[in-house]
Amino acid sequence: MVQTRSKAKASLSHEERTATEPRDEGLYPVTIETVTPVNNRIKTFRLALREQDTFNFQPGQWLDVHVPGIEQAGGFTLTSTPSQARPRPDSEHTPYLELAVQNNPGNPPAAWLWQSPEEIIGKEVNVRVGGSFVWPPPEIDYATIKRAVFIAGGVGINPLVSMLSHINEQETEPEVRILYSSKVPSSDTQPEEVLFLTRLLDLFRKPRTHSTKNCIELFLTGTWDGAPLNRRNDEPIQPLMSLTLPQIQSDTEVPVTAWTHRIDDTALASAVGNAEEAQGTVFYVCGPAEMTDSIVDWIQKQKNVDPERVLCEKWW
C-alpha cells in the first residue's frame, strides 16, 4: 500500500486535501497546556485531555484542529503516542496529545497557535483524529516485519516520531533504521534545535530487546541562514555533531552517523539491505512531495522490495 497525494492538492485546505481519508465523526475538547519552542520556526504544543475520558488513535495519525474564531480546521500530526493519551491508574500522569507546528502566517489555525503563549495557554480547542498513514501497517502481516526503515525530510519526522516512540514502548520490536534529512537553523545549531533529534537519540539510548542493528543516520542539507555546514567535504558541523555523535561504546546505544548532503542512492541501498533483509522490511517515507516521490520510486524499483511494503505521506 502506498499512500500518495497529488501536488495539485497543495493549494487546498487541510479538510479538502484529506476528504477521502478516514477520520472520527465527533470533535473532542482539549486544553492547551504548554507551548515549547524548538527553534524560531517550530513549536510543540501539549494538549491536555480530560482524565476521565480515553482518546484513541494510531501512531502516525493527524488531528483536525478547530481553534476559536476560525471556521476552517488546521491539520497537524500527532507526535505523542497512544499510551500518553490514556489515563494511568495509581499514577500522576495526565493524559495528553502533542503536536509540532511550523510557523505559517498563511495558515489561520497555525497562526492562531503561534500567538504569544500567554494568549492561548488554558484555551480550549476541538480536535478530531484521522489519517491512514499508521503503524503498524494495517495491510501487512506484522509477523513478516523483521525490519522497519523510517525516512523523514524536515517536519516529515512528525508522524514517524510517534511511530518510533510507540515501537520503543513495546516488549518486542523489529530492527529499526532512521534516515532523517533536515536543514538546521545555523552552523552553531544545538541538538535540541533540530526537531525531535534529542528525543530520537534518547529512544535509541534505551536498552533494546533483541536487535543490535538499529541505527540513526542524519543528513544535514544546509542552514536557514545560508551559512556553510562544513569547510571540507562532509566535515561535520560543530557543536551539533560533537554533542550527538560521540564514539558510542555502551551496549545500550546504537550507532549514529551524520552527513552534510541529501539522502542519496548509496544511503538508500544500505537501508534496503541484502535480499533477505529487503524482503522482511517495511518502509515509511514522509517529507516534501518531490523528495518523497523520488525516494519511494527508487525503493519500489529495487529487486527484492515488495512495493506494497513502501508507505508514504507528503506534507505541503
Automatic annotation (TrEMBL):
Q: Which UniProt keywords apply?
A: NAD, Oxidoreductase
- Cellular component GO terms, alphabetical: mitochondrion
Q: Which residues form the signal peptide?
A: none
Gene Ontology MF terms in the entry:
oxidoreductase activity
Recorded hits in Gene3D superfamilies, A to Z, give: Nucleotide-binding domain of ferredoxin-NADP reductase (FNR) module, Translation factors
| Annotated Basic and acidic residues bias | 12-25
The membrane-spanning stretches of this chain are: none
Instruction: Please give the InterPro entries that the UniProt record associates with this protein.
Output: FAD-bd_FR_type (IPR017927), FNR_nucleotide-bd (IPR039261), Oxidoreductase_NAD-binding (IPR052128), Riboflavin_synthase-like_b-brl (IPR017938)
Q: Is-annotated flag, keyword Transport? A: no
The superkingdom of the source organism is Eukaryota
Q: Which PROSITE patterns match?
A: FAD_FR
- The region called Disordered is annotated at 1-25
According to the entry, every stretch annotated as the FAD-binding FR-type domain falls at 25-138
Protein name as annotated: FAD-binding FR-type domain-containing protein
Native species: Karstenula rhodostoma CBS 690.94
